[in-house]
Amino acid sequence: MKLFRVLFISMIAMLSFNTVAAAGSAxxxxxxxxxxxxGTTGDFNPFSIRDAETNKYKGxxxxxxxxxxxxxxxxxxxxPTDWKTIVNGVVAxxxxxTGSASIKASxxxxxxxxxxxxxxxFKPFTTADKVGNFDGxxxxxxxxxxxxxxxxxxxxxxxxxxxxxxxxxxxEAPARGxxxxxxxxxxxxxxxxxxxxxxxxxxxxxxxxxxxxxRAPTPLAMLLPQxxxxxxxxxxHWIKIKQAKGFFKQMAEKWGL
Length: 257
What we know:
Blueprint lengths: L1 H22 L2 H8 L1 E6 L2 E2 L3 E3 L6 E2 L1 H13 L2 E6 L5 H6 L5 E2 L1 E3 L2 H4 L2 E3 L4 E10 L18 E5 L4 H8 L4 E5 L5 H6 L5 E5 H10 L3 E3 L6 E11 L3 H16 L2 H8 L3
Parallel strand pairs: 1-5, 1-6, 10-11, 10-12
Antiparallel strand pairs: 2-3, 3-4, 7-14, 8-14, 9-12, 9-13, 9-14
């Protein structure tokens, strides 16, 4: 009888804890307000592209988060952010979720991640007039070579570690590393295989540098509040459901990923 009483009290305590946790979750806030706030940079082709004239977004991430809002039966509002402050925005509650971001330890210290649904690796690119100057990763790590990157992105710490002999030029969003190379103010930029393919298709002068193999295979996921396990669980289960139904595969095909 005493054991039953102890188990009963424990069960009630657990249910009470879960109820309080759910009440304090972003999930409850979203459902109560009828709006999902989604942080996005608008400069990550083909994941998030902002139309400067209409201020509207399109891309793989935009379709993914719009589908999430649809399944939750709420509206979606895209909140502008940049790579330098994308984690801070989640922590400060400016948005409930973000589009795809590389999973890395520095971000994990402050924010949570959803399950990964896509992976990338990284390659170097230059312009047609300079592609003959490079052959492999080591050829980039030379004095006199300027490597452009964007502050706060996954690429920034990688290029600093990979090319200690080169000059690293970090630019602040909305500027991008590849724009510096296209403008002739830098020689090389490094980006994911996915964005690189899109840039090559968009700009005929962008050329991929010949390398033995890409570097830093990295899973992508959505950023979420670190201490909100209720919301994290909801998003993770949603991802599994949509993967089983082929939604992520369809979106990858749509956006050429």
